[in-house]
Write a structure and sequence with these properties.
The protein has 160 residues and is of the alpha+beta class. The protein has a domain of 92 residues: RutC-like (60s Ribosomal Protein L30, Chain: A), CATH 3.30.1330. The protein is 32% helix and 24% strand. It has a five-stranded mixed beta sheet, covered by helices on one side. Helix 2 packs parallel to helix 3. The longest helix has 23 residues. The radius of gyration is 15 Å and the shape is globular. InterPro entries: Endoribo_LPSP/chorism_mut-like, RutC-like_sf. This is Transcriptional regulator. Pfam families: YjgF_endoribonc.
């Protein structure tokens, strides 16, 4: 429970399971474990009760770069909560392998890497560089599900 203690010491809370907005259904697994590999579906920021937290809209015209970066950080917490539910103990994570981030971006927005640093920085802060360092992509897209500002997926490795 070292990782959860670290999250708590940083003042963060892992949210409850994602709750779909009314009229929407999640028809996929949030986390899929296959041997020692863990595949994490695209997550976005959540409130503690599992509802979508936003911000919603395109960066930077509707959502500031700072708010989008915070959203990416909060997305890491949502992903960690789903991973914990799937594997039981976040201390089982032996390596963060890849992180794929999408930013709901205005045409020509080139700071997607800055936004995704919110996710990466939290992961490295919580897990340290040996486990938390990862390969990453950060792309801008014309739209994201439910108008989220960011959506992030990942692949990690766990100990048996």
């Amino acid at each position: 429970m070292e990782i959860e203690r670290r999250i708590d010491e940083l003042g963060f809370v892992l949210p409850e399971p994602p709750r779909a907005p009314e009229g929407f259904e999640f028809a996929f697994e949030w986390v899929r474990v296959c041997g020692s590999r863990v595949f994490v579906s695209g997550h976005s920021p959540q409130h503690a009760d599992g509802t979508l937290a936003g911000p919603f809209g395109a960066v930077p015209s509707e959502v500031s770069v700072d708010d989008a970066t915070d959203a990416a950080r909060d997305t890491a917490l949502a992903a960690l909560a789903s991973i914990k539910r799937a594997i039981g103990d976040l201390d089982r994570i032996s390596a963060w392998l890849t992180v794929s981030g999408s930013v709901n971006a205005d045409h020509g927005f080139t700071q997607t890497t800055t936004v995704m640093n919110g996710f990466s920085d939290l992961i490295v802060q919580v897990f340290g560089p040996e486990i938390g360092a990862h390969a990453r992509s950060a792309i801008g897209v014309a739209a994201l599900p439910m108008n989220n500002a960011v959506v992030v997926s990942a692949e990690i490795e766990i100990d048996g």
